[in-house]
Amino acid sequence: MKEFLKLSPAVEKALKEGRPVVALESTIISHGMPYPQNLETARLCEAEVRKYGAEPATVAIIGGKLCAGLTDEELEYLARTGTKVTKASRRDLPVLVARKADGATTVAATMIIAAMAGIRVFATGGIGGVHRGAEVTMDISADLEELAQTPVAVVCAGAKSILDLGLTLEYLETKGVPVIGYGTETLPAFYTYESDFKVDYRMDTPKEIADAIAAQREMGYPGGMLITNPIPHEYAMPKAVIDQAIEQALREANEQGIKGKATTPFLLARVCELTGGDSLKSNIRLVLNNVALGAKIACELAK
Ligand code: PSU
Ligand code: MN
Description:
The protein is built from 13 helices and eleven strands. The protein is an alpha/beta fold. Manganese (II) ion (MN) binds next to loops.
């Protein structure tokens, strides 16, 4: 395992010294946002983690190495290359490693690499879930299976309604993944701060969350945790506006026969275009908000 894994010197040092480290993903850079906002956001996320005295570990596959902690040149390469970089989830890792190729890691792949490195907290924007119409398409993100088996806590802004929120929660319940609401009883819906669905537990402090993560680790059974953090109210989108854009993007995806791993990037890009870039602004703010919470949790865990 060691020969595949490549930690940046800063990440390696922080882990050795037991200091807080927060993993960040790279599909959000290459497939989740357009250039140059993707690069700016990736840099801001790293800076945000450092503000709290934690070390950022952006994860990607570069030349077949599973990297935790990237150089600024590597961030820029992923941001500029965009969707031409392979979107790498669990199934892609063996092939990319064997081919010494590059990949931008999804939530699932980032969790795998974070766990290998010994990183326990990971912050991002949104996770994949059960897609609308999954009872026919069977489109269920590998992110959910990863949460069931890999010991990393993922901070996100809930699930966006390109997914079926109710079915996503049912799936997580079946798989035994605790869904925590940070300061909220209801599942945040990414661009909006609430939904009609309840989280399993509301927690109001990073310490409470860190204690739950520590308990899960000490018991030693597999699986992660999902921490959902509502978008700050001032950056949320009007529900009617975002719902309409999502409906239209879903219709177009259906008409154009978009399938498999292309679905989520297509929907994100269309929603961004249809809202005249407003959804991207919300997306950037909520990611930074999640990264700050991830850093606070990692700091509590390291105490
Ligand atoms: N949701 C977002 N932005 C993203 C993604 C999801 O708001 O960038 C990315 C994440 O990397 C996530 C992946 O792990 O999409 C899920 O893809 P799929 O639905 O194909 O599993
Ligand atoms: Mn899918």
